[in-house]
Amino acid sequence: MNDYKIKELYEKMEMDLIDSMKRNLSRHLAEEEEVGFKYTQWQAEKLKELKRFQRENKKIIGGYVKGLNKEVSKHLQEELKQGSISAIKHYNKVLGDNKNPSKLMNRSFFRTNDRKVKALIKAVNNDLNKANIGALRMINDEYRQIIHKSAFFVANGVKTEKQATSMAIKEISEKKATMQACDEVSKSFLAGGLNCIEYSNGRKVNIASYAAMAVRTASIRAHLMGEGDFRKSIGRTLIKVSTHGGTCKLCARWQGRVLIDDVYSGGEPDGKHTLLSEAMEQGLFHPNCRHGIFTYYPELEGISYDEDEGDEYLPDFLKEKYNYYDRLGKSWNRRSRGFIDPDNKKDARKNYLACEKKKENIIQIVNNKYKNLTNVTKNNRIKGRIPNRRLNYSVDSEGNKYKNFFFEENKKITNEIKYQKILERYLNEEVSLNPKARGIDGKRFSDYWIKKKSKAWDLKTLDGESTEIIDNVLGKACKKKQAPNIVMHVGECPHSNNYLKEKLIETFEKGKRPYVKEVMLFSKKDNLLLHLKRK
After folding, report:
1. How far apart are alpha carbons 110 and 301 in whole angstroms?
2. Which of 214, 341, 349, 527 could hold 179 in an S-S bridge, CB 3.0 to 4.6 Å?
3. Please, are residues 524 and 490 in contact by the beta-carbon 8 Å criterion?
4. How far apart are CA 509 and CA 458, in angstroms?
């Protein structure tokens, strides 16, 4: 059971506990119609039922966590195995070898790592068990507090603006006052949920988030153990840290750095590289860290050490907004499920649905502004020989043709010649090199021209270390009124493919550089990374 499923399980458990609390608090409220409702009687009944409520909660939690330890153990064992498999596959890919993972991962592999993984499993299961006990204690305490503290609000009224207005119009019943009092006392708990985990700095964390973090952290460590075991077996202890856009301050200094893996591969100091243990002490692989490490082969250049994150990818600036509304929505949903008063419940439900709408808008913002054609373009890629195509005239940015033209020497336009074929292969259109025109000033001539669509494309190579290299290249194209359709090729650029993809998506998301209509981004190895087109 991975971290996502763990979080989902604990969120369901939290909702069931809130439903249980609401059922027990609501019981006896209906008696007003028959015998007349009295708060003191209701409070006395709730205190009598406290033990039954505690037994019910214990049963709910037990039902959710039964067998959970075994599921976590199974998951971590699998992560250990997958860590070694991924390291072996990476080795085969970059060095052209054909090592068989099943042969390398024999009994000795599992025996060597058995003690380490068992310690990891024991630690995470202990953390989860403590969290379960904390959840039970918290829900029981909250129930007690609601029963006792509600007396103050029943006596003095709930001083929210809306309820004060309602009370001014008509005197509310004792039943209504009890409902509002229970909601007032419980609203802080319902807003935060089961925040039963408290760190040393006083920060409290929701049980679902904590459980997911605990399992995620353990999963990463198990995976790294597997990778490290293979590195150790081949005598390779240098690693490279992955790179991500919008990283946190703790990890920023370690991105793309080559380190010595002294933690999982038994590497020793060489006087040149920092130890992984030192980087971890200073914050690398903190809880919820997105970074990974990959075996570094110094004899090879131009190898990507970052895993592909796929095309359906939210950039960080949108992900932060999405997560904000996700947390806020869950907070309102808990209140909607836990409130007793119908008016409070209705308002909470309305706010929850508003947050869900915001999340929908963020997911669909991509489709509203542009199309991500990457998968379509890859699938339409044609095979076979692509001919060299050159126009026998020159075309400027306005579509005017010129007969007096020239091509530069081939050695000066090697990339342009290569990408004429690549562009035609991916676009499945006849793409021709566009020559320059003699004696024409003040006109722009693109690198490529597609006759059937009268469409111009320019080739740009990404060279340099600027973190805003994507925006810089597009900015120049806009300023000089070059072709609005651009092919980008990664050259001498230290940034990862994922970082460049994120930056390009961000440009389209935020509506920046609107002059540019379509962009295709290719890796150093001439593989298509991203194809975006504005609507």
Report:
1. 33
2. 341
3. yes
4. 22
